[in-house]
Amino acid sequence: MYQQYFQLMRQSIAARFGDQHVSREDAAAIPYASLGYRVNGGPQVLLVLASDTGGELLWTAKSHVVILTQAGRIIRTVGLPHDVAGVTPQGGHVLPPLAQALRGPVSSMRFADFPDAGAYGVALACVAATAGPQTITILGTAIQTIRVDEKCTSDKLRWSFVDNYWIDPQSGLVWRSVQHIHPRGETVETEIFRPPG
């Protein structure tokens, strides 16, 4: 166990000094569900799954970065230069799964909190739709996916963006994503190395 955490820390520190990808060997050395993330195109860092609470997956590392996801969407971050403190759906406990967009466009409304911008309860109107099949490569393995693009707009902040998700058409798993998590330009890319379960 200590060896795996040492490797995770070594990779995390090394990633700070260049545009580095997590290697297949480093990812394979962690026997837990894991993902790689990068902020604003920076170096890729590995996170491990710490908990699964009702479909909310908490990914973390010793670097004190925490990313909370729900069905592939980032709903909270801690430890990034600009964090999103929470994303909640209008009129429900969970956002519609992105896999629903494989059957046709899906509209949703959500509210987001950005404490460092002094913006709370920011309404985001979003529409997710397929952009077609794409083969992606993660750790040298080709994966057949369907890309879903989700366009969101906030009138309050005059902010609009398009998030991209690469989804397994059979399981609905989001293998890769590019998500805009903050109006100050924070973009987080994720890719699953070892799926949960």
Structural notes for this entry:
With 197 residues, this protein is mostly beta strands. It is built from 2 helices and 12 strands. The chain has helices at residues 2-15, 24-28; strands spanning 34-39, 45-53, 56-60, 66-70, 73-78, 86-89, 106-114, 119-138, 141-154, 159-167, 174-180, 187-194. Strands 5-4-3-2-1-12-11-10-9-8-7-6 form a 12-stranded antiparallel beta sheet. The radius of gyration is 16 Å and the shape is globular.
Map the helices and strands:
Layout: H1 2-15, H2 24-28, E1 34-39, E2 45-53, E3 56-60, E4 66-70, E5 73-78, E6 86-89, E7 106-114, E8 119-138, E9 141-154, E10 159-167, E11 174-180, E12 187-194
Antiparallel strand pairs: 1-2, 1-12, 2-3, 3-4, 4-5, 6-7, 7-8, 8-9, 9-10, 10-11, 11-12
- Proportion of β residues? over 45%
Low-confidence spans: pLDDT under 50, at least 5 residues? 1-18
Backbone structural class = mainly beta
Q: Can you summarize the main beta sheet?
A: 12 strands, antiparallel
Helix content: under 10%
